[in-house]
Amino acid sequence: MKAGDLLAFATQSLLRARMRSSMMLLAMAIGVAAVVMLTALGEGARRYVTGEFSALGTNLVVVFPGRTETGGINPGVLGGDTPRDLTIADAESLLRLPTVADAAPIIVGQATLSVGRLERDTTLMGGTRSIFAVRRWGVRQGEMLPAIRWDQTASVCVIGANLARELFPHTSAVGQWLRVGERRFRVIGIIGSEGRSLGFDVQELILVPVATAEAIYNRTSLFRILVQARSADEMQRTRTDIVETLKARHQGVEDVTVVTQDALLSTFNAIFTVLTLALGAIATISLLVAGVLVMNVMLVAVSQRTAEIGLMKALGARPGQITRLFLMEAVLLALFGSLIGVTVGELVTWAARKTLPFDAVAPTWAVVFGIVVAIACGLIFGILPARRAARLDPVLALAGKV
Amino acid sequence: MIELRHISRFFQVGGETVHALDDVNITIESGEYIAVMGPSGSGKSTMLNILGLLDRPTAGTYLLDGTNTTDLDANAQARVRGEKVGFIFQTFHLVPRLTALENVELPMVLASRPGAERRARARELLTGVGLADRMDHRPDQLSGGQRQRVAIARAMIMQPALLLADEPTGNLDSASGKEVLDVLEKLNVAGLTLVVVTHDPLVGARARRRINMRDGKVLEDVRR
């Protein structure tokens, strides 16, 4: 049979049995739509996290106190050493490195703020003026933290917009006073809208000079040191420089963990890519189920079309031609089903993008994969019915006894 | 042109063996007009199926135009069937979703013949059986006699040497039945070998040779 005739014949068969064909189309469409939507979900999550992460700042290197081995045990504990604190002086020493553009030591803790009778629990961060540059925060009103020495205290604070709105509902917060425990602070600025941070909302934050935070919490150990590397190409060198400097300052013990932003980013990327793959695999299961359904419906179709098959054989159709006919029907169903599925899946993800702050986009490889698997399923699950049709005894088939 | 030598066809039904055909020997010359008759179970339909290469004999040899067909595989059988044999059935067996023209074209579609050639020949044949104005009708828009005439056109499109008709008038009234037999006989006069299986003695009387069968054996083989 010529290819064009085969196509026309198969299409006519499918159009004729509208109910059966619609069922099989639906099964395939749902399977492919599931692949598209689930992988879009995973991809959206990945973009969200990596996007948030990229927004943290450029060329960022983060120094954590304590050494985390991949095995999870701090070797210092075994050796009887306790990790030394990261101090403000440590942070200052990093500023002298040629590969370091800027550094920002931070201390983090909980605090209860009060203004008159209004009270609010929130996160307090002790930092320096440099944190605004390193984290790319702006101020929407007032100023950043003052350019004082890092070991100097001052009773000033910069607060997030949500805090400002809640504690000072009727006036501008700048210039007002608030209380943290026993201490009073003057608000000198409100953090701008670009302030984002993984893990907590910057608009709920109160920022005070780091030395003041040390006094509040009565400790000299830093939560982190954020470092801005001079160039993106030298991140690894920057990292090594920091490790060596701090090791030297800590009696030759490497008791810090230094992580470059892009290393974290690529880890996140890898994790979420695996997530997306896993979601895709789950959705593929539904495609396999669709394939089984197609096989079953086609077996029913073959048993209902025995007279037609017997006739084709009487007219000179070879067994191989009969097989090809039924396989072509299965492939056409898979093809159109997957196109419908892709359309539906893309429409749903488009709607999701419009209504949610979530960049859910099905990756191209997933869409192609979905279509290919659908067609493969059509072929594989169509073989059994097709061969059964080809092996039908034409005599019995024509006599209606099959 | 056809030689059946010691043809037997046995079936296993339940635990028993049914002798549908038992040592049948027949020779058919080109251009003959034969009626195969007999009661139910006499083996006449089985013989038709074997003649048309739809069924394989359990024993014996079937020579068609000098070729020993018993040794052909499924593919080769299909090819010979398509080129040399035309079938007419009692229940017409037209494809319901295709038009008359498309139904007639089917054998050539299966043989991968080009579209223009197919359509021209199909039109010619449909006109020949008097259905020039019904070519685009679907089977459910045609009467029984018209459907059988479409089936005849379809059977003839590959220009077979042999036409096998299984109770061609069984589902038709006597007027349509007569029309159909007239068409078949006209083709026979033009040189087509015609074998008609029937239980209707009036149909059988029109043939030039009658083979009566019972229980898988040939009872009598009479030429007029």
Structure, explained:
Chain A has two domains: 3-52 and 266-398, no CATH class; 99-228, no CATH class. Chain A has helices spanning 3-16, 18-54, 75-79, 88-95, 130-134, 161-167, 210-217, 235-249, 261-304, 306-314, 319-355, 364-390, 394-398; strands at residues 60-65, 100-115, 118-127, 139-142, 156-159, 177-180, 183-191, 205-209, 224-229, 256-260. Helices cover 55% and strands 17% of the residues of chain A. The model of chain A is unreliable at 71-77 (pLDDT under 50). With 224 residues, chain B is of the alpha/beta class. Chain B has a single domain (30-53, 82-223), classed as P-loop containing nucleotide triphosphate hydrolases (Rossmann fold), CATH 3.40.50. In chain B, helix 6 links the parallel strand 7 (162-166) and strand 8. In chain B, helix 3 (100-110) packs across helix 4. The longest helix of chain B is centred in the last third of the chain and has 16 residues, at 174-189. The mean pLDDT of chain B is 91. Chain A binds chain B through residues 1-2, 5, 9, 12-13, 15-16, 307-308, 310-321, 394-395, 398-399, and chain B through 45, 49, 52, 54-55, 74-75, 78-79, 81-83, 87, 89, 93, 95-98, 106-107, 109-112, 114-115, 154, 158.
Gist?
The complex is a heterodimer of chains A (402) and B (224). Chain A has helices spanning 3-16, 18-54, 75-79, 88-95, 130-134, 161-167, 210-217, 235-249, 261-304, 306-314, 319-355, 364-390, 394-398; strands spanning 60-65, 100-115, 118-127, 139-142, 156-159, 177-180, 183-191, 205-209, 224-229, 256-260.
